[in-house]
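Q: Could you fold this chain for me?
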Amino acid sequence: MVTVAEGTAPAFGHVSPGPAASGRPMQNTTRHLCAAVYLNRAVCALVIDEYLRDEHRAVVPSFGFDLDPVIRHALRARRLRISRDVLLALAWTLLLALAPGIAVSVGWALVSPAIAARIRWRSLAWPWRVVTAGALTLPFVYALLAPVLTTAAMTSSDAEEPVHWNIQRLWTVFQVQHPLATLALAFLCFALIYFGHLALLFWTLSRELAPGAHGPGPRVFSPRVEVLLERIRAAQLGNVTLYSGDNPFVGAGPVWSGLTRAWSIVLELDRPGGGPLDGESGGDPLSMESPGRPDPMTMHRRVQESVRAMRDEWPPSPDGTPPDRGSWLPPNERVTGLNTGWHVVAPGLCEQWERPVGASDPRPFRGHPLIDGAARLPYSLAGDEAVDALVRHPQGAVRCFQRITVGAQSQPVLRRDGGPLAPAADRDQTLTTFVYLAVEGRMLYGQFVATVLPPVRSEFRVVDLLSAWSVPVLLGQAVRVGWRGFAEAVLLPVPRTVAAAWGMAGGALAAASGGDPTARTVRDYGSRLSVRELVADTDVDDFLQATDVDKYAKLIERRVNEALLDYLGTECGVDVSAFREQAGTLLNQGVIMTGGRVDGQISVAGSGSRVRQAQGVNP
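A: Sure. Below is the predicted structure, expressed as structure tokens.
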């Protein structure tokens, strides 16, 4: 349950921490995110850096997944990578001791495939592909043949010497007498360590992250991390977002994506509407004596009631009594994955020096309204008092949106007799709409932003298949998935081990010497990323997912606009003809299909730029 903890400010508070989720199966998205930290080094490093390095950083609200197991698995994935890199470093040390010349040749031979794995070959024209492949192949072949060519002359003279088993003799055997066998043995040893680690990952994923797996995940050995996980587990259920960057809706999808829909409407609130019979206009709707003066908070409530009626059994009524049974919404017509709430946002770079409340209010104010000075942490929950004040003060630095989310879980298909025909499925994409209403300057400004969180990338959904694989298939998949990163991993175990140790030491040092963040004049508390966005695909998978996104966005658009029109025109007596004209233009546009994508004509995507994420498996 989301509650305000005792002892906090009345307007903002912290979500009460609850127990770790261990008694129920993990959601599909949670399992996929846990798999991502094993299969991609960059994702694992970013998760640990975002949530564990700075204990004072805000947490993005999580919808449809749990961060706690993801962070636990990220820590174990890092431990497994460090173990693999240490074994590779020991293998390099042994090779350097027994056959230093061959060790150098192996190192040079791995440079070319490591570079080749980084090149985007499909973006190159065929002539450039040939030239680049030749430039990388020649050094590779030379590095492999160099030990054979340079030691051939030494073999005959060394063969007549008496046998004395020491380091010099071992060096002669491995490097001079059997260079090809030593070369093959070195590559075999490296391959066993690298692909054995990947096979162990797949085996772990098949046991602990298969469909139906339970949380919370691996054990954490640091008391400091346990405390952080308790806070993160609670804060992810809040409604406050402090963001670093340019996206106030971080966690709901990239706001500059081509999938985003955004539009705005303005209306004069001091223009009275005509009477229903004689057409004569009434008094000023904004007059303080007017019983139906437009109120932004009431607008939000009307929107909320209208949208919730798409999901609930019966439309909400003032006294809470249900209507006749015949007017109830059948289960198959309810949008069961729809949820509403508040989304309070502010830039994460917080000013904390003492300053006046406003230009005309000299009272001193120190700190930041969204930072708990006693706990030295960002607040995660805005209460009713805070929401009401933020909605009525649209020019403040802290903004309040109404958030409407349609989740990925579909409905089961039932026969007329109630028997199951098709089970519910996880569509794995989420539509989130944000409604902003500002009453200022005798005007209404309404903004509607619909963001889409595409499905998790397919390489991270492999956990749905692993439990059905036999051992040979699992080993084959380990080779198929990991061959691209083999050369780089074998070539760089020491730098990676040092970097991991440095990062762990840096995180512990930062936690111990961070001091009091509230004592700084300016401090960045903002969330920098969302794990769900980090592993999301760049687009929806297929046409049906695209039409689902378009369908629910348009349904919500219609409910929002009609709720505002009914309230302003009927209850407040405002002339809504301009609003209705704008809404009709926006909502009645057709659908354009261009380049295999489906977009409404009213889609606004800023500069139209795309967000590119690191692709592929990189264990």
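A (continued): Residues 14-234+468-513 form one domain.
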